[in-house]
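re: that chain from earlier
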Amino acid sequence: MVVYSHSRIVTYENCPYQYKLRYVDKVVPLLGGTIESYMGGIVHEALEWLYDTVVNHDLATKEELLSYYDQRWVSRWKEDTRVIKSEFDFDHYKKSGRDYVEKYYERYVPFNQAVTIGLEKRLYIDLPDGKKMSGIIDRLDKKSKTHFEVHDYKTSSRLIEQSQADIDRQLSLYAMAVHQHYPEVETIDLIWHFVKFDAEVKSIRNKNQLQELALETCTKIDMIETAVADSDLPTSKSMLCDWCEYRKQCPEFGKTVDSEEIIEVIDKLVSITQSDIPEDDKVVILKTIEDKIKLFAQQSRQKTLVGTTHKATVEDVFERIPPDQGNLKWYNLQTELKNMNLEIGDLSNVFHTPELSEKQKNSLKGYFDIERSTKVVLEKL
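^ sequence. v structure.
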């Protein structure tokens, strides 16, 4: 059974073809993420870390928070991150996110407005007809036994109107989840923090509104599943296309590669691989060629493509990525290893440690993210 999420439904609403690539075909995007998404992720991590110090340690100073932000920006950076708006550069976004975090700290210090009971808290939602959804709440606070708050951080450049907040689906679903998991709760405040504007937007939902939402969401899920079953997932061009990671793989923008061209591309890959050109130049050229091969493999639904003297196979690669130092998962992982009486310097090789039992390895897996990518493997015919 598919467990849906708000973002999964939004993907379908924005573009059924993007939904097809991401959730049905599970295609790895050829383009990197956008700088807006990257900056938003670092802001979220910094605020999560801040509230963790409130709950489990001594409250971090503003300087410590900003230092953490700077460290995360560097350690999480990916070279294929894209800037869509040409009038801005990477430094603009880094500084903007830093300013958002600083303003947030100054507004809420000493962070005693409520008791935080969950950070990045995943909750599951039971819907009619046995359907299920899940959501991750940025922060869940307790004002009293019967009064909770759902907090959501937004780094967007647009501040929503109250009328939009009052019909927002995402936090409404989170309210539904909280009611199901904490039946004693009577009141749930939904609070958006628009950190660019140093502003809060608040809303509430009554039980009748949530019941109606549950039925509407089930109808939406039925619509999506019917579309998938009928293979009715067309493209939907909009201003969002500029930010789409699948733009190169979309028939609205990507060029369809024919079989004669792919033979030439594979032969070119062989030639460059075997050449003695400088390594830095070779890496750039090979990436461009391999992107074409991956695109053709996706379009033709063939994993192995044949050139004149070699064949190229596009393989999925799954890798467990250890948490970065300073990440909450990193601290929890260190505690777990300490409990196992293990000291491991290189976390990337932890699962090859002979002293670990299978049970111990399984208990450590939750601290590692699984990163999926593709690679092109050349073999001689």
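The domain at 3-226 is CATH 3.90.320 (Lambda Exonuclease; Chain A).
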